[in-house]
Structures are given as structure tokens and as C-alpha cells.
Amino acid sequence: MVLLRLLVLLFALVVSDLHSLPWFINVSESQGPGTVLQFFSFNCSSYTPTPTLELLNVQPPTTFFNPPSLARWQGTYVGKLTLSSSARLDALMVNHYKLWLKFTCGNYVTEGPLFVDVQRDLSHIQCAGQFASPAGEMIRVPETVRPGARLYILLLPGLELHGAQVFQLQISVSFGQRQSCQGMVMVKVLPVSSSQVSFFEQAQNITIPENLAPGSEVVQVWARGVNLRYEILSPMPSPFFSIGHADGVVRTTAPLELARTPGTVVSRLQVKAFERHQPWDSAELNLTMNVRLVNLWPPRCLPALLVSQIPETAPVGTVLTTLTCEDPDSVGATLDYKLWFRSSSDPASLCLYDRVLEVNATLDCDTPGSCFQHAASILVLDGGQPQMTTEVPVLVMVTPVNEFSPACASRMFRVREDAAPHTLLGSVVGTDMDYPHDNIEYYTSGGPSTFAVDRLSGEVHLLGPLDYEQQRVYRLTVLLIDHGQDQNPNCHRSGSCTITIEVEDVNDHAPECEPPFQELTIYVPLGRSVEVTKVSCRIPQEPQRLAFSYSIVGGNSQNRFILQGAMLVHSDLVLGPFWPEQRNTYELLICVADAGPSIPHLSTTATIVVHPVFWKASREATSIHRTTVPSMMTPMLVTDTEAFWQPQPWFVVVLTATGALLLLVLGWLLGRLLQGLAHLLQAPSKLAQALLLNTIQGTKGSLEGFMEVPKMEISQAPSSIKSLQHFDGRAQDSRTGRDYLFNTCTGARRWL
């Protein structure tokens, strides 16, 4: 027995769930007090207060049911409903009960009905009234009662329905000592028709609504007679109606919902009225119960809530869902459907054809606020009275689709070659028609590392130095990648465009003259102009620059020299004092500047020391002797460019140590170079003085001996000068490293 109850409990845990309400259970009228009607199982968190299960009410009202109990078993709460000690189920009296249960688990509360149908049990006959009570039935008779008079009639439930009563008597006859016999006597009581019991009418038609609760009074029948009792003869048993034995009140015993029990539309009952002590004295009445349809329930739909998700590219006519609805009051009845929008979205986006919800227009989400969510409701209306309506909420989420690729227009930027790092050159403007618009990231696809594109803004920045002479045009491919425009975060589209960057030339190199320092001796006839030398300058880093401007900025105190382009000319057209009074040394400073369109204009200064030798003769001859100093005397052009740089502390320490060591090395080298330079400067000075002296002496002899000689070319020297070209020394040029022979008297050189 214990095992059986355990199996019943396990079965109840599996099949019982409060969420499956309502329940329908059948119980025999023979069940007595303590009978378990139903088990319930509930899930409730252990963190919540103890749950409760309550019996709120019973219809029709009765005390036959105990309050349900609730106990915890293996992590699950099990509820049990039993019959009370006062339970006396009688299907003839009430065969349907409705119990309303309430389960509470913390803040979660749910309620539901339990329908109990009482089934008739013909094998279970119970005595009723005082006869069945422990005190028994008491009858009172006068002392003058005649022998054989009828004292009491026992009517057993169910036997009165057959119209006759049969009694079986077991008789035992004893006579003499220990002598007896036994026998059986069958007594059949036949009904005797009587005209005393009768109904006022033979048939009645009753119309009742289907929403009558079980136990509701339908009609009360009346019959003529004394001490009458009433019962239903047909149908037997009656599933939906019962009649009061004493008052003749016909009541409902079960719900009359036509949708569930369409057979209850018309019910025909045969009611019998009989005298209590003479049941054979009876009369019959035909009752016709017409159940009128009442619109009790709104339409029921599946699904009860419609949530759908579609891409914005869904074509017109795409089916979102098909709604399935029915009217519980009238199965198969026609229902009406209406679409009602809740949000301010375009009502033309969706449409409802009968029960089918479809896309009605293009779902374009590339305009801000155009879609993304459509909130609507489908109203389902039945045809009953009063008309009932069910609202099915509809939420359609339109997901974005990355339809378009980003694009940008080709651009051209110009930048000066002396632009500092991080200079902003311009911006790449990308466009994307998908929403959110222009949600783009920018990247460089290969190309030089001199430029960078900001990932979010598309700004093009300069990262490194530029050199117009090395590269004038850069082409940079910018890659555009969109993001955040599709339901799938990994779905991207890309585009690209080419950026052309032109480097503008900046004059950043000063001219260099070769040689930067010259010392010349010229023979100048009085009253004549003589070309001294041509200043040769160039810019090695920019060989294409050939335009220069020349000007004498120092040393031309008597304005004896002029510049004709790059040519330095000694002008003696205006006769001054006698030539012995003229200066015999001019140290000219010539400024050479680039003359191109680029700014700033940079310049350098060349130094030319000129020793003019004047003579007056009918036949003049000129000669120029050039002396070039070593390159270590070359003037230096220092260009100072200030740039902001903040090194790391460790780098400053390393640089300081390295600089100190370098200064020591440079100091030692400079001392050695100055010693060599002192020796070199002493030798040219002696050579120049000897040359000047010998030249003047030679010139005097030439003026006397060659007054009538025709003019000689400047490149030709007098024979007296040539006779002096005897090389009696050898040295090495400190700049080129080449060896040469020199004349200690004239200073002339011959390269080896």
C-alpha cells in the first residue's frame, strides 16, 4: 500500500503542474472522507518565503472538501486535496463542483479552477435519513394499532426508480426440539395508480443561458399531492441537471458551455412526482431545456503575442505570420480581423489579408527614424452578442542591412617641403548611404609611411620630412570600411579612393661658389675695362636652379669694379689720379643669391682679393694671375632651423656623454689643423709678396722695352714673366690632396 501511494505521488509530480489549470477530475459518489482527490506539484525558489496553497471557494457551496495541504519533497512542493469528514457525495443531488485554488510563491501568485465531477455508483446503495443514523429512526404508533398494520416503509435510493419494490425474505420455522425448516418468500410490491398526485401541466419548455454556474436554479416544478417527492426518471443519470427531492427545484450540476458540450443545446428531462409513503402514487412531467448561446469568451488566438524580425530588404508580400484564432463560444464561427498601429511608424509598411500579416511597402531603414520597430495590434472580433474582442500585440523589428559600399572622391593636396611633422594636409570625406550615415573608418592601403590618415575623421597628416628634390608627388590609397550598419556585426563593405599629394618646392639650400675665395693679380691698362673673373656658383642639391643674382656688397670703395652678370669687371674708364696713386689691393665681397620664384631667397658670399697692376703704353698687355686658397678657408653658410623636440631623459644623458667625448676629439683635431694652417698661410703670403715685387720690376722693364709692341691677349704674359717661371719647390694641396710644384719667387704652380 505504501508503494502504491508513492507511485501515485510520483505520477502526480510528473503530470501535475499549476500552469496546466484548469483540471477536470472524476470521483465516484461512493468515495468517503479522507479520499485524496488530486496531487499538485509546484516549483518555488528556496530563497523565497514558504509558499502557500489555498482553497478560495467552492461552487455550489459545501464543506465536503478539506483545505489543501502543501509539503516539500525532494526540492519540490507537493499539494494534496482530500474529502472532509462531512463528505457525503450524491450524484443525484450535485454531480459537479468547481473549486478555485490559489498558489503563492513569494511575489508570484497564480490562481486556477479545479472541476470535480461526481459519478453515480449504482452498486453503492446507502441508506439515508434517520434510518441510517446511529440513533436510528423512531416511529410512534397508538396502542390500539391493529395487528398486521403497516408501521414503516424503507425506501432505498435507486430502488424507487424501477416503479416496483421487491423484498426477499428468508424465513426460518422452528418446531419441537431442534427441528426447523427454512424457506424464502419473494414479496413484490406493485404500484397502484392514484389520481391524487398530478402535475398542473404535462410538459414545459424552459430556456436558460449557457453561462449558468453549477448549482444554479433552473425551474421549480409543482405537483398536486401530499408529502410528495421528486426525481428525474430520464436520462438516468442526468449529467447536467438535478432535482430537489423535497422541493422539486431543478438545478444545473455542470457547466453548460455549448462550445465544449454542444449536446446540451436541447435537453429533455422526465420528472416524476410521487407520494413519500406510497411511491406507486406518482405522476410524470416532460421538461425541455433549451440552452441559449451566450457570448462568454473572446476569441482565442495562437500566437497570443506576435514578435517578428525581418531585414529591411524584405520584398513586398513577405509573409510575417498567419494568425490562428477560434471562438470558444462557437467553434467554426467566422471572425473579423483588423490591424491597428500603435506607433507613429508608416501604417503602409504592413498589411493584414484575412489572417495573414504581410509586408506592404519597402522597409527602408536608411532614413533616420523611418523604421526599426513597428508596434501594432491585430483586433479579432467575434459575431456574438455582446461582441467580444481579442487583441494580439504585434511587434515587428526591422533589422538593418548593409546595402551600400562607402565611397570617397579623389583629392589633391599641396604641402610645402619644409612642413613640420603632424601638419594637417586636408581630410578625406567618405560617404555611406546606409544608416547610420557615414559610419566609416579610414585606413591607408600600402603607400608611403610619410603620411597617415586618422581612422575616425579621415584627416591626412604629415609624419616625416619631405624633400622636393627627391620626390615631388605622392599617391596615397585610402581604404574606407563601414561598420555598425548591419544586424551581423561582422558584415562590412569597403571602398577606396586615391589621394595625390604634391610637394611644393621651398628654397632651403644656399648657393655654393667654386672656389669660395680667390686672390687674383691683374694687369690693367689705364683707361680700359678688364674682365677679372667669372663667379661660378651652383646649388648641388638643386641642380635645376640656374638663376642667380650677383652684387658687390663690400670692398669696392672706389667703385673700380662692376658686375656684368656673373662676370667681375675692373672699370677704369674714368681717369683718376696717376696710377702709382691707385690702391693696389681690393678685397671684394660678392653676394650670390638665388633668383627663382621660391622663397625665401638664400644667398652666399664669395671673397675675391684683386691685386691690380697699372701701366700706360701704346701697346698694352694684361695678365691675370690667380691664387686660390685652400678649401679650409672656405666661408661657411650656417642655416639655423629650430624644431621642437623633447627627448627622453635617458637619451639626454647618453647624448651629453657622447657630446662631451666628441668635443674632446674635435678639440684635439682642431689643434692639429690650426698648426697645419699656420704653416700653409705663411707660405702663400711670402709667395704673394715675391710675386708682386717681381711683377712690378718686370713690368718696368716691359714698359721700356715693349712700348711699341702690339697688344697681347690677356691670357699671354710678358716674356720677362715667363722667364721667372722656374719651379724650385714642391707641396701638397690640403683640400684635394694633389701634389704640385711652385716658384718661390712668383708663386706660380704646376699640378703634378
Search tags:
752 residues; mainly beta; Immunoglobulin-like; 5-stranded mixed sheet; 4-stranded mixed sheet
* Widest sheet: strand ordering: 41-44-45-38-46
Instruction: Sketch the major β-sheet.
Output: 5 strands, mixed
CATH superfamily of the domain at 512-614: Cadherins
What low-confidence regions span 5 or more consecutive residues with pLDDT below 50? 1-21, 158-163, 574-580, 617-643, 690-725
> What percentage of the residues does DSSP assign to strands (E)?
35-45%
User: How large is the radius of gyration?
Assistant: 66 Å
Subcellular location: Membrane
InterPro entries: Cadherin-domain_protein (IPR050971), Cadherin-like_dom (IPR002126), Cadherin-like_sf (IPR015919), Cadherin_CS (IPR020894)
Signal peptide: 1-20
GO cellular component, one term: plasma membrane
Model description:
Among the domains are: 23-119, Cadherins (Immunoglobulin-like, Sandwich), CATH 2.60.40.60; 198-292, Cadherins (Immunoglobulin-like), CATH 2.60.40.60; 300-399, Immunoglobulin-like, CATH 2.60.40; 407-504, Sandwich (Immunoglobulin-like), CATH 2.60.40; 512-614, Cadherins (Immunoglobulin-like), CATH 2.60.40. Helix content is 10%, strand content 39%. It is rod-shaped. The strands form 16 sheets. It has a 5-stranded mixed sheet. The longest helix is centred in the C-terminal third of the chain and has 57 residues, at 649-705. By secondary structure, the chain is mainly β. The chain is built from 3 helices and 49 strands. Residues 1-21, 158-163, 574-580, 617-643 and 690-725 have low confidence and may be disordered. A hairpin with a 7-residue loop joins strand 26 (373-381) and strand 27 (389-399).
